[in-house]
Amino acid sequence: MDPASIAGTVLVFVAIFVSTFLEGGNPLSMFLLPPILLVVFGTIGAVMASGVMRDSMSLPALIKRAFLAPKMDGSVVVESIVSLADRARREGLLALEEEAKKVEDPFLRRGLVLAIDGMDSKEIREILEGEIETKQRYDKVGVKMFTDMGALAPTIGIIGTVLGLIHVLENLSDPAKLGHLIAGAFVATLWGVMTANAIWLPIGNRLKRISDLECEQMEVVVEGVLAIQAGSNPRLVGQKLRAMVATGPPEAEKKAA
């Protein structure tokens, strides 16, 4: 699991609460149940109304994926493909039949099975690249839901503030309550802006980054499977695939730093 998402979210809320405390405010004053319920469930409801039920049902899984997705390491896949290419070159493609069953990556396993079955390389590329395109379209739907929630949450917060101010106007005859009621009204706007920029938009961006990394790795697998089928030199296969895997700044930039 990559802890960046959890650590970043915790850091944002710690910064908000500590800054409130240092300015002499009480962080607990932000925790008013009515505006929190309005903003959170109002935002989710607005997004549900914008799509289909199938997309809405995937929200819990998408949130779990954003925070708990396994850490991506393209070099592991490359080394696995190089090992398979080496064996295929020495013993033939059919020697990978049992080896393919032990491969954990389902996309790589499917590609190997297609190659072992003797399918044409052009057809293998079309099938595997079709899977990548389908995944990109599916992931795009999830990303859009969270970016939409980031755009809607502040507006829902403003609705809560307007409702609060209406309640203020209803109590003008009791000046002792006005300060508390006005402060409570603006808490809704606070939660709208805060959830948009600390939760929904970061989750959307995180899902997009995870999707990009997974698709990059799948593209590496496509080239690796085709190289194995072609009986390419394992050393050259490794060099080609490692050049496709983004593991950090290019060597030239590292030396310059």
Automatic annotation (TrEMBL):
Its main location: membrane. It is found in: Cell membrane. One of its GO terms (biological process) is chemotaxis. Keywords: Cell membrane, Membrane, Transmembrane, Transmembrane helix, Transport. It is a multi-pass membrane protein. It holds the Pfam family MotA_ExbB. Residues 100-219 form the MotA/TolQ/ExbB proton channel domain. Coiled coil: none annotated. The chain crosses the membrane at residues 5-22, 28-49, 145-169, 181-201. Belongs to the MotA family. This is MotA/TolQ/ExbB proton channel.
